[in-house]
Write a structure and sequence with these properties.
The chain has 89 residues and is mostly helical.
């Protein structure tokens, strides 16, 4: 009985962690990753995280977009999406 409860505890703990150990959904970009990207390419890479409601990744990537292209073509739309992502998170 003790072994069964221990096995169930281990199983439930492993299930509650989900698939985070696999690294799925960790699409946050760094400045090195986005060094050669144009503003449009960078903006288009952010869209899947917004569509998937992955707000934390979208927020960090939108902030990076704003810091790299503050007066670009997508700056205003990126700021609006940043506000929306911060509201939803």
């Amino acid at each position: 009985m003790k072994n069964l409860s221990l096995m169930l505890l281990i199983l439930s703990l492993s299930l509650t962690t989900g698939c985070s150990w696999l690294g799925w959904g960790d699409e946050e970009q760094t400045e090195e990753d986005s060094a050669g990207l144009t503003e449009k390419d960078f903006y288009e890479r952010i869209q899947p995280s917004l569509n998937a409601s992955n707000w934390t990744v979208a927020i960090s990537n939108l902030q990076l977009l704003e810091s790299q292209f503050p007066f670009g073509k997508y700056a205003e739309q990126g700021q609006l999406e940043l506000i929306y992502a911060q509201y939803k998170s």
